[in-house]
């Protein structure tokens, strides 16, 4: 009886824990993660850093100005070799300042570098959107992992309570001589196994809560549970090929790889620009002044104004430019292969997610029916035990089947929801609206 009472209290405490505090739903957890997840914060910082590539690339096309100034103290002595000219010495200051302005007129490498900066900024936008989709999937996975672990812990506790009742009944039946010791041993073995399963379920629940806490940056709150009868929807269109074609074209991972291929092709153009001549316009204004000097005469002030064009034609750089071109060609081939891999991965992800949704609908419906059948089977087995046509082991087996079906149904429901989100992500259309749609399926039990 003490074991039965302790198990009942534990099961009650697990159920009460779900209602002790206001439950946070998926949308609330997602918004917490947006502000606290370190992975997504790093992606935002990377996006901000890459935005600076654009002004850096533009700078290579704009004029540059340099202001310089210097002052120096001069102490000179002159020794003449002729005795008729005595040695002389003098101390004086000289000051100079200069303003230089350079405007690139033709620099092939700078033009391509600006195009590359535009490509990088566009790629960063897509990478940030991809990080946003990844955040939704990670939050949803962690959220439903906690719900599944909680469900398993509650089922493990309930199963232990049910088996303890059967154990107590088996002992009573043995004492009055209506059952054998075998029934008692079987029930005891099932009870010991249920205790171990409950401990494992509690451990798994704690781990899953910690994983969710890692994403939201705080202890995991109580969570809203998935409603008993969720809306099961088939993909629209309910054909796999359109989803696959869209995934290979519109997947964010594919778009990132396409941008990488574009950048690598631009890198070839930029390095080939090393063979092109450069033409710059420049202007310089210099104002220089000097003291009287060693001769004792008056000082001088000089103003110089220069404007002109400068042409530079690269002739030979030791083979460095040709080597960089070969390197860029190899990197282009690498980017092309990575794009092909991204398309294949997107195709596979779309296949898996589509089948996860379509098969998930069938699996959930089948398990709902199996749950009803398992409950009926348990009820019939218990009645058969009372009239003497079933044994204690039959009841334990029926109970085990019922709890297993409940676990499988919860797992199938969570997998269906995650497959729904992954299918949207596979074609680059996963957004907060989809989180809100799933969130509408959640509610208190």
Characterization of this structure:
The chain has helices spanning 2-17, 26-36, 38-51, 53-59, 108-176, 181-216, 240-250, 252-272, 320-387, 392-426, 432-439; strands at 64-78, 88-106, 278-290, 300-312. By secondary structure, the protein is α+β, with helices and mostly antiparallel strands. It folds into two domains: 2-60 and 111-275 and 321-439, Up-down Bundle (Outer membrane efflux proteins (OEP)), CATH 1.20.1600.10; 62-75 and 88-106 and 277-313, Single Sheet (Outer membrane efflux proteins (OEP)), CATH 2.20.200. A four-stranded antiparallel beta sheet has the order 1-2-3-4, with no helix packed on it. The two termini are 29 Å apart.
Short key terms for the protein model shown above:
single chain, 445 residues, alpha+beta, Outer membrane efflux proteins (OEP), 2 domains, 4-stranded antiparallel sheet, 11 helices, 67% helix, disordered N terminus
Alpha-carbon distance between the two ends = 29 Å
Q: Which class do the helix and strand fractions yield?
A: alpha+beta
Radius of gyration, Cα only, in angstroms? 39 Å
Largest sheet report: 4 strands, antiparallel
Question: Strands of the biggest beta sheet: in what spatial order?
Answer: 1-2-3-4
Give the H and E element order. Answer: HHHHEEHHHHEEHHH
For the secondary structure, the number of strands is 4
| Assigned CATH superfamily of the largest domain | Outer membrane efflux proteins (OEP)
Oligomeric status = single chain
Q: Provide the CATH top-level class of the largest domain.
A: Mainly Alpha
Secondary structure tally, helices: 11
Provide the low-confidence segments as ranges.
Answer: 1-20
Q: Proportion of β residues?
A: 5-15%
Overall mean pLDDT: 87
Query: Helicity, in percent?
Result: 55-70%
Tell me the count of domains. Answer: 2
Give the second-level CATH assignment, the architecture of the largest domain: Up-down Bundle
CATH T-level fold name of the largest domain = Outer membrane efflux proteins (OEP)
The coarse silhouette is elongated
